[in-house]
Write a structure and sequence with these properties.
Residues 1-41 are annotated as: Disordered. It comes from Penicillium cosmopolitanum. This is Transcription factor domain-containing protein. It is a single chain. The protein folds into two domains: 9-224, no CATH class; 232-443, no CATH class. It has a two-stranded antiparallel ribbon. The chain is mostly helical and 452 residues long. It is built from 18 helices and two strands.
Length: 452
């Protein structure tokens, strides 16, 4: 019931079992289509003014749309949603994820039960849609599969089970997009789903320590984005996945360590040579206070605040930083294992130990920069600066949760920096009402797109 066992197999259907309703020009809630995202007036209005008469599922969808597509997360989703007529698999999957999100925010068991029932219905409808040979439905079905994956990480359950369900859905979405014609990716919304699938497949493979599937590379060529930095980044991620997968399968050797060092140098060079729109869009400013939200006896470091042109720009830079942290962690792990397996006392050992020290210092700097993307205590004036109001505050806070949780996991932090990270994670969890920070890796696009 909670797994898409047949998703990959059904991505290239041979015979139809049912047909979905034809697309409509607008969604049933009366919101106009937008190939970017809904505005506060479009979404908050129904929540505030119609909540007494509007079905709970529609209210949940409105909340989810504004919280997750307002320039921070799933920008392509409102347009995809608006193109489809109810009841489509996309509408049903979105309602299931939205009810789960609302249930978490309000701590209501009855909503969790409704969400679970909606998930079962959406899963059945999506599997039926996979039998539909109409090519125009494939992007909708892939989006539906991603929403089912998001449901898996929103809903509380065993973490191992969640990872398996998540990976299953992700591979299903990849298989669906792999069967699409190239001319189906000619809109902003289709490019959005393309980049989202690429990103989460990359993250899933890195987490599972496996190489990237061959069909993923075929999707790279369908991107509209600047072919320079984008293709270079995807190439580095492929190399990172390959080296990560090889660690543990073969004995550590000096040539393997050198490959990882070269990869880390490539990440460093990419970050130094980003386009001007990226490299000149932020500045350091000192924190105004460090006392808020501190527990008794707790100490933290003073972290400068990085100001970006937009929250999405902060996400893109954090994606680069997290990938660099992964390469550094891989380097330190491989080097430490090698040093422990050979006799010591050589000049080579001294060089490797110096490499470890340098890597640790670099990791501390990167972690500090990730922390600097978090506005001090998520001050309201920072929301105003970025034009973020109302429900979207939680979306922005949530977008910072995943980078912070990954930064927390690295072994290179000082005690004071670790305290700072843990404190900000607590603040973010309180604002976003989502304590499952694994949710970030699914809802945050994570691709280094060049549209600024």
């Amino acid at each position: 019931m909670h797994q898409t066992d047949t998703t990959v197999k059904k991505a290239n259907p041979r015979s139809p079992k049912s047909k979905l309703d034809p697309p409509s020009s607008s969604n049933s809630d009366g919101n106009e289509k937008n190939d970017n995202y809904y505005t506060p007036d479009q979404v908050i209005g129904p929540i505030q003014m119609q909540h007494l008469i509007e079905p709970i599922g529609s209210r949940a969808v409105n909340l989810f749309m504004f919280a997750f597509s307002g320039g921070v997360y799933l920008d392509y989703l409102p347009a995809m949603y608006g193109y489809q007529a109810k009841p489509s698999c996309l509408h049903m999957s979105l309602e299931a994820a939205a009810l789960a999100y609302m249930a978490n925010g309000h701590h209501r068991q009855d909503l969790r039960q409704m969400a679970l029932q909606s998930y079962g219905a959406a899963l059945s409808q999506t599997n039926r849609a996979l039998q539909n040979p109409k090519a125009t439905m494939k992007l909708e079905t892939a989006t539906s599969v991603l929403l089912l994956a998001l449901f898996a990480v929103i809903s509380p359950r065993n973490s191992d089970q969640t990872q398996n369900i998540w990976s299953e859905h992700v591979r299903g979405a990849l298989a669906i997009l792999g069967s699409c014609r190239p001319d189906m990716f000619n809109s902003l919304s289709s490019q959005g789903i393309l980049h989202h699938v690429i990103s989460i497949v990359q993250i899933d493979c890195l987490d599972r320590r496996v190489q990237m599937p061959p069909q993923l590379k075929a999707l790279y060529a369908l991107s509209w984005l600047n072919p320079g930095p984008q293709v270079q980044l995807w190439s580095l991620i492929d190399r990172l996945a390959e080296l990560t997968a090889s660690i543990g399968r073969t004995p550590i050797c000096l040539s393997g360590i050198e490959q990882i060092r070269n990869l880390d140098s490539s990440f460093e060079e990419l970050m130094k040579c980003m386009p001007e729109a990226y490299s000149n869009c932020f500045e350091f400013e000192e924190c105004t206070t460090t006392a808020t939200h501190l527990s008794e006896g707790e100490t933290i470091e003073r972290i400068p605040v990085l100001k970006f042109a937009s929250p999405r720009m902060a996400q893109r830079w954090n994606t680069l930083r997290l990938l660099r942290l992964r390469s550094i962690d891989l380097l330190t792990s491989a080097t430490s294992d090698y040093l422990s397996s050979v006799p010591g006392g050589t000049h080579l050992d001294e060089g490797l130990e110096l490499c470890l020290d340098n890597a640790s210092e670099t990791a501390k700097q990167i972690t500090t920069e990730i922390c600097a993307t978090v506005p001090e205590h998520l001050r309201p004036d920072q929301f105003t600066r970025y034009g973020i109001m109302g429900v979207a505050e939680s979306a922005w806070a949530r977008s910072l949760g995943w980078p912070l949780s990954m930064a927390k996991a690295t072994a290179h932090n000082s005690e004071a920096l670790q305290n700072y990270i843990e404190r900000q994670i607590r603040v973010i969890a309180g604002i976003s009402s989502t304590h499952n920070l694994d949710f970030q890796k699914g809802s945050q696009a994570g691709s280094l797109d060049m549209d600024g």
